[in-house]
Amino acid sequence: MPLKYYTHGRRDQMKVALTFDDGPNPPRTDQVIEILNSRGARGTFFVLGKWVERWPEAFLRIVDKGHAVGNHSHLHQTHLGDFDRAEAAIGNLLGRPTQFLRAHYFNFFTCLYSPVALAPEMKIVDADVNPADYAKTDPDAIVEATLNDPALAGGSIIDLHDSTESDDDALRLARSLPMIAALPAIVDGLQARGYELVGLDEMELVDPVEWRPDGRGTFASAAVRSMVNKIGD
C-alpha cells in the first residue's frame, strides 16, 4: 500500500490549522497555549516522545487546555522511524491512540517500518505553509513569512516550532522565543482575514499526496533502503 500524506484541508472552508513541532517544552509551550487560548484559537502540537516522558505534566497541560496532539517521533533522529516508541509514551498519558503523525524533517521514509505510522486510521500530516521559524531570529520576519505565504488559504496547515530536538536546554528554551513573539500577530492577522484557527481534529483533510522516494533515505539502514527501493514495484 502506498504511503500517503496530507498538506491541507478543505479549501472551501475558512479553517486554518496552526501546528507546533518538537515539544512539549515548558515553559515555552505554556506561553504558546496562553496566547492561543486568549484569542479563542486552537492548535495541534506534534510532540516528541522523549520530551513527553521527561515532562508529562507539560504534555497533559496541552490536552487539558483543549488542544490537539500528534506523534512526531521519539528522538527526532534523521533516519530513525521510532514513532511506535513515541506512541507508547503519548498513549500512556493520553489514554487513547493519536490520530495524527508528522515525519521529523518530513523524511517520510522513516514511516515505512512503523506499524503506528502505517495504520489505516493514522493521518500523516505535512504542511503547505512553512515559514521556517526555527531559522529566523526576527519575529517580524516570521509574521511576514506566515501571513504572506502564497499558499495560505482556507484549509492551510502552518508549521511552527515551540521547541527543538536538541538536548541542549539553553537552545531548547531560546529557539522558540522569536516564534512566540510573532505568534500574537500571526493569530490576529489570520483571524482578521476571517480564518477560524482549529485543531487538526476539526479539519477535514483532503487530497492526500502519494510519497515517492526523494533521496533523503540514502543513509538509512540497508533494510529501510531496500524497502524504499521496492516502492512502486
What does this structure look like?
With 233 residues, this protein is an alpha/beta fold. The protein has one domain (4-230): TIM Barrel. The chain is built from nine helices and nine strands. It has helices at 28-38, 49-54, 56-64, 83-94, 115-118, 139-147, 169-175, 177-192, 222-230, and strands at 4-5, 15-23, 43-47, 68-71, 100-101, 123-124, 157-161, 196-197, 209-210. Strands 2, 3, 4, 7 and 8 form a five-stranded parallel β-sheet that branches. Strands 1-9 form a two-stranded antiparallel sheet. A two-stranded parallel sheet has the order 5-6. Strand 2 (15-23), helix 1 (28-38) and strand 3 form a beta-alpha-beta unit. The longest helix has 16 residues, at 177-192. It starts with a strand and ends with a helix.
**What is the terminal-to-terminal distance?**
11 Å
Number of strands: 9
The helix tally amounts to 9
CATH class: Alpha Beta
Helix content: 25-40%
CATH fold field value: TIM Barrel
Beta-strand percent range? 5-15%
In the CATH classification, which architecture applies?
A: Alpha-Beta Barrel
Poorly predicted runs are: none
How many structural domains does the protein architecture include?
Answer: 1
In round numbers, the mean pLDDT is: 94
Please tell me how large the radius of gyration is. Answer: 17 Å
Structural class: alpha/beta
Largest sheet composition? 5 strands, parallel
Order of helices and strands: EEHEHHEHEHEHEHHEEH
